[in-house]
Amino acid sequence: MSALFITPILHVFDKRIKNLKIPVSFLYFVNDGFFISQEKSFDILNTNLFYGYNIMLSLLKQFGLVIKHEKTKVFHFSRLHSIFSPLPLNLSQIGGPILHPKDTWQYLRFIFNRKFTFCQHIKFYTNKALFTIKCMKMLSNSMWGLLPYQKHLLYRIYILSIILYSFFF
After folding, report:
1. What is the pTM of this model?
2. Count of beta carbons in the 10 Å neighbourhood of residue 75
3. Is 95 left (phi over 0), alpha (psi -120 to 50) or beta?
4. What is the arithmetic mean of pLDDT over 110-136?
5. To 10 degrees, what angle do helices 42-62 and 2-20 make?
6. Residues 126 and 163 sit within 8 Å (Cβ to Cβ)
7. Which of 9-18, 19-28, 31-40 has the lowest mean pLDDT?
């Protein structure tokens, strides 16, 4: 239902962005939206994101919807090998906060870093699986508790789902 309601807003947004020649795209998934812009200069990038955010904010207000500024985040991908210090995005002119770029970004249980190496993602879910295995040891010992078959089944159902799919119950 939300997609049916949001689709006209996204269509109007795309037309306005193209008419103003602002190189910003907007992706929408259920209740998350993403502004995407590619620039070499952070000043130009932040300007594009500011204009895109402002246009979307005004469109949503016209349709009776609200952007929760406190949930808004900024994340920059970069291939730079040197020190990477992007500028904050100042949304205070339109009633929003000053957004400082995050080092990592989590979306649909995937943890992204600026260089797409997935190191934080692998480390997080490896530690989660190892901690769960240590907790499983408390469920039994040689005298009582789970049978080896039950331990094996628990490992296959729970631990492998964490390791392979970043999924946990």
Report:
1. 0.68
2. 17
3. left
4. 85
5. 130
6. yes
7. 31-40
